[in-house]
Write a structure and sequence with these properties.
The complex is a heterotrimer of chains A (about 425), B (about 550) and C (about 250). Chain A is about 40% helix and about 15% strand. Chain A is built from 17 helices and eleven strands. Chain A has a five-stranded mixed sheet with strand order 6-5-11-8-9, with helices on one face. The model of chain A has no long low-confidence stretch (mean pLDDT about 95). Chain B is an alpha+beta fold and about 550 residues long. Chain C has about 250 residues and is of the alpha+beta class. In chain C, strands 2-1-3-4 form a four-stranded mixed sheet, covered by helices on one side. In chain C, a hairpin with a 2-residue loop joins β3 and β4. Classes of the chains: A alpha/beta (about 425), B alpha+beta (about 550), C alpha+beta (about 250). At the A-C interface, α5, α7, β3, β5 and β11 of A face α1, α4, α6 and α7 of C.
Chain lengths: ~425, ~550, ~250
């Protein structure tokens, strides 16, 4: 059940033990059926494990939604090089708070999934890259890894199988961009956390130059259940193209904020009004961001959609991390967009010109508009800056910064205009 | 079609078909097709990070624009560098640069040779739309010859990569991130400890990194550029001499993949003031009966000297002192003259440093121990090295000679005032008047290498051409020309009419030059014949 | 599996610090934070798999303390053993240096560079890239208030103002008594429990301006603070150059 509220419409696969302090211990996890999947996997052919995950249709839960089994199948089979599995626990997307729960309530679920994944892709070492701010979950996961080593579950000759896989917990140091998989690799290697150009792809040249797979915490936490019950079992939930369950992390102006595990395809309307108890303080809904701050904003009359990758995309946004941020009618949209863009400006690594300059420029214009010093021409400029920032950079932080700007101007233009018309700025000609 | 045998690929760039080796990047293939793709962070001598986003081009079939500097061409690919999408992308990137870039052109040294100016003029917006305040970093002294203007920096990181990959000393780094990122050293640490730092000024596309030596000295468009060879050690880096008002303003490296790649060292780069000396001999001087040096015309001087040469021919020992800062033609004809007069000793002196300074990123390149450009050349021409590592001493025979003493170039600064006082004939061909040369019977003004054509032979036996960057003062003439006329007077042959002819003349009495000509040397030079080609290491072991 | 009805009902308090846990009313703060499970982690690194993951924003620190002596030497060895390249140990080593000294000074950068065979300029480039390495000293308790969108919607600006007012300090500065520095933080990953505030190593959630005085009073007061990382808890963190000022 999710945390800190439960709902009868939830499906409890990976969140079954949230709020259960015993479940985080090795003993507790085993009592709850833990590490049976690992044993089973170790008895299977590695490629059979990959096939099972492919069958399940599990898609990456870190935002991109790339089919996990397919990602694993990109790894070479016979190259003789050490392979690495990196667990992306950098959760820094505004609105996302699911991985922290998985780490602090069920660290052994994560470790079990990581070991199964590492076995499948022939990895010798698993690095769990956790954002530096997550000191408390990190201590819990560190203890869990220690327990695993003590019990012969990690390290040499795992559960007597003859397979050696090491696990290391690695703390980040405060950079949202390190959640991007190639930037994560650079950060792990002790470099500035700047994304790499692709090609080469991580499965060919990754961490320390070796074939590498990077998976999100939630994705990996799902793996033991898929192995235990079979890929087809996982498809009982969700849709054809978006099978399974997802942790929906809902924040903002709802009554019951928190994590809820629901099947993909769950109606957004029901999520907000049923599961989360509707808008707080009897207010009305104004806007919803369905997948974390990097995705386009939806207006209140666009929430009649199913929460799966395809449907949200068809509605003009993205499911992303399913981090739903709900805004009521008191919300100053311009202020929130400004704050989001400032976040991107702060977090831009600075490599690519459009992002380095564009994020800061967008932030400055938005601040000016918010302070009543904007003009209508600024809105056109914002849109064009956003266009020049999209599709032109090494990673998509640039596109992410542009998304809330473009969608909010399109759907909440009046909010902008109100600040502009109330303001005192006289439009100045562009030439200086 | 991919040609399996040759491993080549054929693609089309802006409608022009071009065939290139497999693995060629689009930006390189475009160059082969005559198409220039604007870029900043890419440099052929460094790794390519594809971060400036200027070189984005459209490739048929690819949904997004792709950076030309890292994408390799595929067979049959159709690439468009001037399509609407590509131009719009570049236009956008240029506007982003101008958001924070200060309008420093009036006070920036880079103006006139600035890639930001060039591309914005070519295809940027007439007016940037930013009305916001610009971020300010101020000026930072990076040590050595380098000043850094953070405001102008476009964060291409060429300088950081150069120091890491070529200079082998990671003194620079990017500090902070995002819009606040800037280049810096480690606090008080500076670039002065690297002999290669000056190159970062060359590769900086804008005026962020500037040379203190060149600061506010001359405008780029006022400069004349002449290809030449660095005179400061025996590596023979290909350089470009930039001049204005008949004064050398700076040296810049010229690319030569066999010698110095795209680089040159600071030791060589900053030593050019000697070429701007004003205290030059400007007319031929002949000693009269009273013992005074009197300025005369070339006509008179040559006539008198040829007569005298005929008189002393075969009467006694001849000592020829050559100069390692003069070309093969100059020294070669000096040696020839000495031979025709009866032969004797041919020597030269040249300074040598304690250590070589290697370039880690391009092993063929180093600041060599021999601190002159034509040491190897003189050896090939049969001159023997004398004197110590400071180029002093070793001329006792010449100093007290009663025979013929011919000195080219060597200022004889360490020699006693009586040098050559007893000589039957003492001819000094020089650029400046050293004290000991005042005993000379004939003082003939010659040009520095920067004022004439000629060749130097570098440490590995490569003969490379240089061209005249300055106009010689007064009546100074290239030494090969003067000596050629003297030779012609002596043995009634044709005097060489050009440096090219003088070079060909060398082959007549020296096997090493056989078969070579200026046409063959071209702008990149060529190795002298096998017998005198030496590996770099061997040349230094003496 | 109860669920509150929506219309007209009291909006229930969301879980936060001090044990308020929504429907999980039986959970104590220790249960949620996992304090008992983690226990005391030895300064020399414990099991090598976790040597790279100690809290590095601590209340007790000594800017003059040696970096790689005593238990920390052992920890460094363990860190180095987990990576195929020395360079990869840079982030954990800088973290350990901050754990010991409280911030990353130029001297610290140079020492870390030496021990890992990296150039000091390179280490400076990495240290200044990441927000959590303090490039200058901060107060004993680094109070980071998330003001990003999910918390912003729920009054984060007021919480920030409350901290500043109560302490009487400007953002990014150290208070007179040296105890506090307050900065804005980006999303802390606790968006369901706004406003999220990180004080040294701990998260405080569901913080309202009214909670601020009690939070401040509790800092350094509770004996169970001395439960983490072998030293008094409440680690320290943050402060990149110019981080306190937004563009």
């Amino acid at each position: 059940m999710a945390y800190p509220y439960r709902h009868e419409r939830e499906t409890r696969v990976i969140s079954a033990h949230f709020g259960d302090p015993e479940a985080r211990t090795l003993k507790g996890w085993r009592e709850r059926g833990g590490y049976a999947a690992l044993e089973k996997a170790l008895g299977m052919d590695r490629d059979a494990v990959i096939e099972e995950v492919k069958q399940s249709g599990l898609r990456g839960r870190g935002g991109a939604g790339f089919p996990t089994g397919m990602k694993w199948s990109f790894m070479p089979k016979d190259d003789g090089k050490p392979h690495y599995l990196l667990i992306n626990s950098d959760e820094s997307e505004p609105g996302a708070f699911k991985d922290r729960e998985l780490c602090r309530w069920t660290p052994h679920q994560l470790i079990e999934g990581a070991l199964i994944a590492a076995y499948a892709i022939r990895a010798v070492h698993v690095y769990i890259y956790m954002r530096g701010e997550f000191f408390e979950p990190a201590q819990i996961v560190a203890r869990a890894i220690e327990e695993a080593y003590e019990a012969g579950i990690a390290g040499k000759n795992i559960l007597g199988s003859g397979v050696d896989i090491d696990v290391t917990l690695h703390l980040g140091a405060g950079a949202y961009i390190c959640g991007e998989e190639t930037a994560l690799m650079n950060s792990l290697e002790g470099r500035r956390g700047q994304p790499r150009i692709k090609p080469p792809f991580p499965a060919a040249v990754g961490a320390f130059g070796m074939p590498t797979t990077i998976n999100n915490v939630e994705t990996v936490s799902t793996v033991p259940h898929i192995i235990k019950n079979g890929g087809a079992w996982y498809r009982q939930w969700g849709t054809e193209k978006s099978p399974g369950t997802k942790l929906f992390n809902v924040s903002g102006h709802v009554v019951r904020r928190g994590n809820y595990e629901l099947p993909l395809g769950f109606p957004l309307k029901d999520l907000i009004y049923d599961v989360c108890g509707g808008i707080r303080d009897g207010r009305k809904l104004k806007a919803v961001i369905p997948g974390g701050s990097s995705v386009p904003i939806l207006s209140a009359d666009e929430i009649d959609i199913a929460m799966d990758y395809e449907s949200v995309a068809a509605a003009g946004s993205m499911l992303g991390t399913a981090s739903v941020i709900v805004m009521d009618d008191r919300t100053n949209i311009v202020k929130q967009v400004r704050r989001m863009v400032e976040f991107y400006a702060h977090e831009s690594c600075g490599q690519c010109t459009p992002c380095r300059e564009g994020t800061a420029w967008l932030a400055k214009i938005l601040r000016r508009i918010e302070n009543g010093q904007g003009t209508e021409a600024d809105l056109d400029t914002l849109l064009e800056i956003g266009r020049n920032m999209s599709g032109t950079t090494i990673c998509v932080l640039s596109d992410s910064a542009a998304a809330p700007v473009a969608s909010s101007i399109r759907k909440f233009r009046d909010d902008y205009l109100a600040l502009i018309r109330r303001g005192t700025r006289v439009a100045v000609p562009a030439a200086v | 079609m991919a040609n399996e045998q040759n491993d080549t690929i054929t693609c089309t760039i802006n409608g022009v078909q071009v065939t290139v080796p497999k693995g060629t990047r689009i930006i390189e293939a475009a160059e082969a097709a005559g198409v220039g793709i604007p870029h900043y962070c890419y440099h052929p001598g460094l790794s390519a990070p594809a971060m400036c986003r200027m070189c984005l081009v459209e490739v048929e079939g690819m949904p997004k624009l792709t950076p030309a500097c890292v994408t390799t061409v595929a067979d049959g690919q159709k690439i468009l560098t001037e399509s609407e999408k590509a131009r719009a992308a570049r236009n956008g990137v240029l506007e982003f640069y101008l958001v924070n870039h200060p309008l420093d052109c009036p006070i920036c040294d880079q103006a006139g040779e600035c890639k930001l100016q060039d591309y914005v003029h070519q295809e940027g917006r007439a007016h940037g739309r930013s009305q916001e305040g610009k971020r300010v970093f101020g000026r930072d002294d990076f040590g050595g010859d380098i000043l850094y203007n953070g405001d102008r920096c476009i964060m291409c990181t060429r300088c950081v990569r150069f120091m890491r990959e070529i200079a082998g000393d990671e003194i620079l780094g990017v500090v902070q991130r995002g819009n606040r990122s800037v280049i810096d050293t480690f606090f008080d640490e500076g670039l002065e400890r690297s002999n290669w730092a000056g190159n970062i000024v060359d590769i900086c596309p804008v005026g962020a990194l500037v040379s203190k030596d060149f600061l506010h000295k001359a405008r780029a468009w006022d400069l004349d550029h002449t290809p030449s060879i660095c005179p400061n050690c025996s590596q023979g880096c290909n350089i470009r001499i930039d001049t204005r008002d008949n004064l050398v303003q700076r040296f810049k490296p010229r690319a030569n993949p066999d010698v110095n790649s795209y680089w040159m060292c600071d030791y060589g780069r900053l030593r050019y003031e000697g070429l701007n000396r004003g205290d030059r001999i400007e007319a031929p001087l002949v000693r009269d009966a009273q013992g005074n040096l009197v300025a005369t015309s070339w006509q008179d001087a040559i006539v008198a000297l040829v007569d005298r040469l005929r008189e002393v021919r075969g009467t006694g020992p001849v000592v020829a002192v050559g100069s390692a800062v003069h070309g093969n033609e100059d020294n070669g004809l000096l040696g020839r003259l000495a031979e025709l007069l009866g032969g004797g000793a041919a020597v030269f002196r040249s300074a040598r440093a304690d250590e070589e300074i290697p370039c880690p990123g391009f092993p063929k390149l180093a600041r060599r121990r021999d601190l002159a450009p034509n040491v190897r050349g003189l050896e090939v021409l049969g001159f023997e090295r004398t004197g110590d590592d400071a180029a002093r001493g070793g001329l006792d025979a010449a100093a007290t000679s009663r025979g013929v003493v011919l000195v080219l170039g060597d200022e004889l600064a360490d020699q006693p005032a009586t040098f050559g006082a007893d000589a039957a004939l003492f001819v000094y061909l020089g650029t400046t008047l050293g004290p000991a040369a005042r005993n000379a019977h004939f003082v003939l003004p010659v040009t520095t290498f920067a004022e004439q054509e000629g060749t130097f032979t570098n440490f590995e036996g490569r003969a490379q051409r240089f061209w005249p960057a300055l106009q010689a003062p007064g009546l100074a003439r290239p030494a090969w020309q003067v000596l050629g006329v003297l030779l012609a007077g002596l043995d009634e042959t044709q005097a060489p009419a050009s440096a090219a002819d003088a070079f060909l003349l060398l082959a007549e009495f020296n096997d090493a030059f056989r078969g070579l000509s200026y046409e063959m040397l071209g702008p990149r030079g060529a190795l002298l014949n096998e017998s005198v080609k030496l590996a770099a290491g061997a040349a230094e072991v003496k | 599996m109860s669920r509150e009805s929506n219309a007209g009902a009291q909006t229930p308090k969301n879980p936060g610090w001090a044990g308020e846990t929504g429907e999980f009313t039986h959970l104590t703060e220790a249960d949620v934070r996992g304090t008992a499970y983690v226990g005391r982690r030895p300064p020399e690194g414990g099991h090598p798999s976790g040597a790279c993951s100690y809290p590095y924003q601590r209340a007790e620190r000594d800017p003059e303390a040696p970096l790689f002596e005593g238990p920390y030497r052992g920890r460094l060895e363990k860190i180095l053993s987990r990576y195929p390249e020395k360079r990869a140990a840079l982030l954990p080593t800088l973290a350990m240096a901050q754990e010991i000294r409280g911030h990353i000074s130029p001297e610290t950068m140079a020492e870390v560079a030496r021990v890992l065979d990296l150039s000091p300029a390179y280490v400076r480039g990495v240290a200044t890239f990441y927000t959590m390495y303090n490039k200058r000293p901060v107060g004993k308790y680094l109070i980071q208030v998330c003001t990003n969108v999910a918390c912003n919607l729920c009054g984060a600006d007021e919480v920030m103002a409350a901290f500043l007012d109560h302490i009487g300090v400007e953002p990014g500065e150290i208070s007179e008594d040296g105890r506090f520095t307050v900065v804005e933080a980006e999303c802390l990953g606790a968006c369901g429990f706004p406003t999220a505030v990180q004080i040294n190593e701990r998260y405080f959630e569901n913080v309202t301006p009214e909670d601020v005085p009690a939070i401040l009073a509790s800092l350094g007061a509770s004996p169970e603070d001395a439960s983490r990382g072998g030293e008094a808890a409440v680690p320290a963190g943050i402060g990149s150059e110019g981080d306190a000022e937004q563009d």
